Amino acid sequence: MWPCLLLALALLGTVPAIHPAPRQPQGVPAGETTPLYYTVVKKLRTYSGAQRYCQDVYRGRLASVHSAARNQELRKLAQTYNVIISPWIGAVTSRRAGQWKSYWEDSSPWNYANWAPTHPFHIVTTCTTLSIRDGLWRSRFCFQLRPFICQY
């Protein structure tokens, strides 16, 4: 009898049907309007492999960073996962229309950067990592195997 009663109540909307607990979004720093969810994936992937993983598993993308607060938040998140190698974030630097430009893979505006000295590289197309040690971004060859941060 109880299973039937619970099913009836769930269908009427008085008791929630079985759903996973909602994930809590990270805070929304100044300059950003939409709360996003983030996760650090410790599996080592190339940049393109990480991007595919974020799309396939989370229906998301590699993280884009639009403020110092978000940068610090993602750095701390990676530290809590005990990540040793700096993870990929969703920025690429390449030559476009004869000039070197950095851009976010999710097509969001390039309105914040936190490059380490001498970065980004302007030699070949490179992908970007977020240092868990100092929070600075560094250019890396996109075929390297690294952990990564997904946003969704």
From TrEMBL:
Pfam family, one: Lectin_C
Record's signal peptide: 1-17
Entry keyword set: Disulfide bond, Signal
Record domain C-type lectin: where: 38-151
Protein name stated in the entry: PRG3 protein
Species for this entry: Hypocryptadius cinnamomeus
UniProt lineage: Eukaryota, Metazoa, Chordata, Craniata, Vertebrata
Encoding gene, per UniProt annotation: Prg3
